[in-house]
What we know:
This protein has 8 helices and 7 strands; from the N terminus they run H-H-H-E-E-H-H-E-E-E-E-H-H-E-H. It is of the alpha+beta class. It folds into 2 domains: about 10-80, Orthogonal Bundle (Arc Repressor Mutant, subunit A), CATH 1.10.10.10; about 95-195, SCP2 sterol-binding domain (Nonspecific Lipid-transfer Protein, Chain A), CATH 3.30.1050.10. Strands 5-4-3-6-7 form a 5-stranded mixed β-sheet. Strand 3 (about 120-125) and strand 4 form a beta hairpin. The longest helix has 13 residues, at about 35-45. The N and C termini lie far apart (about 50 Å).
Amino acid sequence: xxxxxxxxxxxxxxxxxxxxxxxxxxxxxxxxxxxxxxxxxxxxxxxxxxxxxxxxxxxxxxxxxxxxxxxxxxxxxxxxxxxxxxxxxxxxxxxxxxxxxxxxxxxxxxxxxxxxxxxxxxxxxxxxxxxxxxxxxxxxxxxxxxxxxxxxxxxxxxxxxxxxxxxxxxxxxxxxxxxxxxxxxxxxxxxxxxxxxxxxxxxxxxxx
Length: 208
């Protein structure tokens, strides 16, 4: 707890759970954190070998922070905190800070490996301008920001509908009819996705 229990520390680690981040990404995703506090926490985590600086290749050529192999030992901690947090999650209100990509944690937390036996598929999510995906392979799940390579389904949604989906709440029919949420791809893959992540209902792929 002396290493990870400081204010903002676990939130920084949470952001790195879904992939490398630039300094500006932290400032954008952690409203309320001061620049001095962020710099101090990043330095502490570097000194403790939890994170490391890396350089993205051109054309980005940006300096990013990422979890080390040692830092990834916290993965199950983050996942279990996400499972705990799902019980308190409600659809975001207008004044709430909310990032659609935080749903990555919710999906990994609700993963059911027993339902994923023999499944090798990728599911892409596009939520209010942000794209992320999960890959299911060999009864394991891997999630990351950005588009999937040859996704079996693509779910496009507004953040409210995506939050409801991640919480396991039934999405109203009017949300599907209005286009606030839609799905393209394989109907069979969609059905498997719903079972694997314990999502409510089993809507039809758009146009089917």
